[in-house]
Amino acid sequence: MFSQSFLQLNTIFISILIEAIPFVLIGVFISGFIQMFITEEMIAKVIPKNRFLAVLSAAFIGALFPACECGIVPIVRRLLLKGVPLHAGIAFMLTGPVINPIVLFSTYIAFGNQWDMPLYRGGLSFIVAILVGSIISWQFSGSQLLDKGSLHTHCHAPGKQTFSKKFVGMLRHAIEEFFSVGKYLIIGAFIAAAMQTYVKTSTLLEIGQTEAASHLVMMGLAFVLSLCSEADAFIASSFRSTFSTGSLIAFLVFGAMVDIKNLLMMLGTFKKRFVMYLIVYIAIFVFIGSLLI
């Protein structure tokens, strides 16, 4: 019995890593590109000074940015180090993994070529990103990053090097970033695999009998399963006969913004107090928004 459960845990663990690593690689290479090719002056031209407009513009940029939640944290960290305001970075981080075209199309396919689910998912994600980013803009100042010094931001000024040197620098930064976030991915994948192995889905289904409870259960399930946002809609669609549309949207939105591996990456990047507030705000707005659906 033990050997069977351990084999199942190992299989799930490896499958999560195989699913996540390509997106982490994409994320760290984009992070390296931002470090070497994007200057602070370029960012200053794109991000408005007004707090709300900065959040709004960053949310729109995130919506056009095909990034998974597995790789979005290193991208946001690099943007913050380049001078992007925290509230704009968070709005970008919350919309990027959910509203991008790849995720919305996979949601459309998973739910039988119907547009209501991708529209609900994209709409609620955008609203949550705007609300959370706006609150963050008033509550927190500074980048809230844990350790700026270890990221070598003092060297490699983008505008003063040849293309070849910038490209080599991009690869070096990508490698450093991968090993920085990779340990959190491995730990998170293992915890998620253990939860899927030893926590029975039937137990969660029994808990979610009322409307409000079903939304909370699906949010908890999304956190535990730690699926990449490009694939989670196919799992959500399997619960259509059991859960309401609103609770499925809660699963699709909350899981793409917060899961085990993503939480560990955030804890390894941002101050713990900030992360806790961020998770609470996301959970509250996703829960209320999904109930309204």
Topology readout:
Layout: H1 2-37, H2 40-46, H3 51-63, H4 69-81, H5 86-99, H6 101-110, H7 116-139, H8 163-198, H9 201-207, H10 211-225, H11 232-237, H12 245-257, H13 260-267, H14 272-292
Structure description:
This protein is mainly α and 293 residues long. It has one domain (2-292). Helix content is 76%, strand content 0%. It has helices at residues 2-37, 40-46, 51-63, 69-81, 86-99, 101-110, 116-139, 163-198, 201-207, 211-225, 232-237, 245-257, 260-267, 272-292. Helix 5 (86-99) runs antiparallel to helix 7 (116-139) and helix 10 runs parallel beside helix 12.
Mean pLDDT: 84
* Biggest beta sheet summary: none
Number of separate structural domains: 1
Distance between the termini: 42 Å
What ranges have pLDDT less than 50 throughout 5 or more consecutive residues? 149-157
Strand percentage lies at under 5%
Total number of strands = 0
Fraction of residues in H or I helices? over 70%
Task: Describe the global form.
Answer: globular
Order of helices and strands: HHHHHHHHHHHHHH
Structural class: mainly alpha
Write down the Rg: 19 Å
Describe what is shown at a glance.
This protein is an all-alpha fold.
Protein traits:
about 290 residues; mainly alpha; 14 helices; cell membrane; UPF0718
